[in-house]
Amino acid sequence: MTGRSRVKIKILICSSLAMALLSGCFEKNDEQKIILNNVPDIVAKGDYHKGTDIIRKGAEQGYASDQYLLGLIYSRGIGMPQDYQLAATWFGKAAEQGHELSQIKLGWMYSEGKGVAQDHQKAVYWFRKAAEQGNDVAQFVLGQKYERGEGVKQDSKLAYVWYSVSVANNSKDSNNEDLAKIRDAVAKKLTQEELHEAQKLASKYFKLYPTKQP
User: Fold this and answer.
1) Where does the UniProt annotation place the signal sequence (predicted)?
2) Distance in angstroms (rounded) separating the CA atoms of residues 39 and 18
3) Number of neighbouring beta carbons within 10 Å of residue 164
């Protein structure tokens, strides 16, 4: 396993479209595959303890991808007891290094109060960090935060902006039509002037925060 390699996985938005990265969006077996795919020498044996030791070593050496994987292991209790506090610790270390999937996970944990005290402002902080890296899931959730006024002042215009950016960055996914409907529902709350301003800002943000190409 190369601790230096980033984990490249797309977090899909759940069909409920509620909180796009609630823990249910990743099935436990999916996260097991993520972990084992990064330690190919033990895939055949299914030796989670050995795999965890390898990942932990990379995490302790400061590799963000391994810190993220270790956070997944603790958050799901894969091969060990579930521990949200340790998960938050490792996601936090990776998030501070700019690891966008860790930023999303940490944002979710602050939203739900999992392993950390619930803090919607901190949740928004981390979702924004990932959104500004072009992560369309984080962009969608940030839109939700503005629509609901969670951790930020309620602002339908900014909700529309972030929903629009997410839709634009998510154009190839099958659920994009549903996302567009959510954006359009918010648009109905805006005046024509507000909508025009929001569309201009969304266009600017789309150029600033495009989804990274694989």
Assistant:
1) 1-20
2) 33
3) 25
Higher model confidence: residue 117 or residue 66?
Answer: 117
Answer for the pair 9, 34: CB distance below 8 angstroms, yes or no: yes
**Are the CB atoms for 18 and 25 separated by under 8 Å?**
no
Q: What percent of the chain has pLDDT over 90?
A: 60
Closest by CA position to 125, among listed 13, 74, 109 = 109
Q: How many CB atoms lie within 10 A of CB 154?
A: 12
Q: In angstroms, rounded to a whole number, what is the distance separating the alpha carbons of residues 61 and 149? A: 39
From the list 69, 68, 137, the residue with the least C-alpha distance to 97 is 68
* Ordered structural domains, the chain, with CATH: 7-118 (1.25.40.10), 136-214 (no CATH)
Separation of CA 119 from chain center: 16
Total Cβ atoms within 10 A of residue 12? 16
Let me know: does 168 contact 184? Beta carbons within 8 Å: no
More confident residue, 191 or 69: 191
Summarised one tens digit per residue, pLDDT across range 142-189 is 999 999 999 999 999 999 999 999 999 887 776 788 899 999 999 999
Q: Is the pLDDT of residue 122 over 90?
A: yes
Is residue 136 within 8 Å of residue 211, measured between CB atoms?
Answer: yes
